[in-house]
Amino acid sequence: MMTVLHLTTAEQLLWANVPQALQKGWSVETESGTWRDSPQYRQMRMQLVKLQDPKLLAFIEHAKAAASADALAKLLSETDLQGVMDSDISELFFALGPAVVGKLITLMLGTIKTHADIEGIAALTTIRRSLYAALVSSPR
């Protein structure tokens, strides 16, 4: 089980509001990854994504109308990812990029009720960290 959250400074302020009983057993490391995305570059990645799952295909169709990282994160938070293959989820997060994942983390930090919620956030912070590493090393 992951026990480390890689949070930005702003996310750490939200984490500080989580009840101490839920914070117990979790450590926080500062996320310092940076990568400037653009709506055009994100749109290009979303057009190239190869997804199989019907839920994600529907998500992509709705996502075409979402103009901002905030709107995409909200849409993603309303999408049921249960049963979606890991390969599809990986493709989706790569297409969305670390900014959208960060917005999703922010949304989730405000709604933590259980340790399972925190485990989901931990997974997302690890995904974001991997996206930073992959996208920083890729040419545009």
Low-confidence stretches: none
Structural class: mainly alpha
* C-alpha Rg (nearest Å): 15 Å
Quaternary structure type: single chain
Report the β-strand fraction as a percent range. 5-15%
- The shape, in one word, is globular
What's the structural domain tally?
1
Number of E-state strands? 2
SSE arrangement, N to C: EHHEHHHHH
Helix content, binned percent:
55-70%
* Major pleated sheet: 2 strands, parallel
Q: Output the strand order for the largest sheet.
A: 1-2
Mean pLDDT across all amino acids: 92
Number of helices: 7
Distance between the termini: 35 Å
Describe the structure.
This protein has 140 residues and is mainly α. It has one domain. 61% of the residues lie in helices and 6% in strands. The protein contains 7 helices and 2 strands. The chain has helices at 9-15, 20-23, 39-48, 54-63, 69-77, 86-109, 115-136, and strands at 4-7, 27-30. A two-stranded parallel sheet has the order 1-2. α3 packs antiparallel against α6, α5 (69-77) packs across α6 (86-109) and α6 packs across α7 (115-136). The longest helix has 24 residues, at 86-109. The N and C termini lie far apart (35 Å). The mean pLDDT is 92.
